[in-house]
Write a structure and sequence with these properties.
With 128 residues, the protein is an all-beta fold. The chain is built from no helices and 11 strands. The radius of gyration is 17 Å and the shape is globular. The protein starts with 15 loop residues before the first strand and ends in a 21-residue tail after the last strand. It binds 2-oxoglutaric acid and fe (ii) ion. It holds the Pfam family 2OG-FeII_Oxy_3.
């Protein structure tokens, strides 16, 4: 059953599909394709900037499917931080009403100062 409150839109598709920040997921076998790019993320964080909307929960998904394992209710000032690899597939449920604002951080912890190509070249590999 789906309850709809005043002003909400009927929307069920996620606002942000389940994904992994560090790599591109192949949804057929949930394997990861890594980029050898300097912008590859190691750690991610999301800061919620408001909570005057409905829906839009952040969730960590079970590996291998798109359902929520752990849901985080957006709250202004709340920070969710996690490592960016395959261990943390996540997404955002449908925003039903209002505007959802977040600040997304991505960090890369490495002493590696080599420069990497900024475009995908051939097969991707994980240098780490
Ligand atoms: O908006 C969010 O809560 C998550 C966004 C996200 O997962 C991302 O930018 O990679
Ligand atoms: Fe993400």
């Amino acid at each position: 059953m789906l309850a709809l409150f005043a002003g909400e839109t009927l929307r069920t598709e996620p606002s942000h599909n389940v994904h992994v920040d560090k790599c591109e997921l192949n949804y057929l076998d949930w394997s990861c394709r890594y980029q050898t790019e300097l912008n590859q993320r190691h750690y991610s964080a999301i800061m919620f900037l408001n909570d005057d909307f409905t829906g839009g929960q952040f969730f960590f998904a079970y590996r291998g499917n798109h359902t929520a394992q752990l849901t985080v209710q957006p709250k202004c000032g709340r920070l969710v931080a996690f490592s960016s690899g395959q261990e943390n597939p996540h997404g955002v449920k449908a925003v039903l009403q209002g505007r959802r604002c977040v600040l997304a951080f991505g960090t890369r912890w490495t002493n590696d100062t080599r420069s990497y190509p900024t475009t995908r070249q051939g097969n991707w590999s994980n240098p780490y």
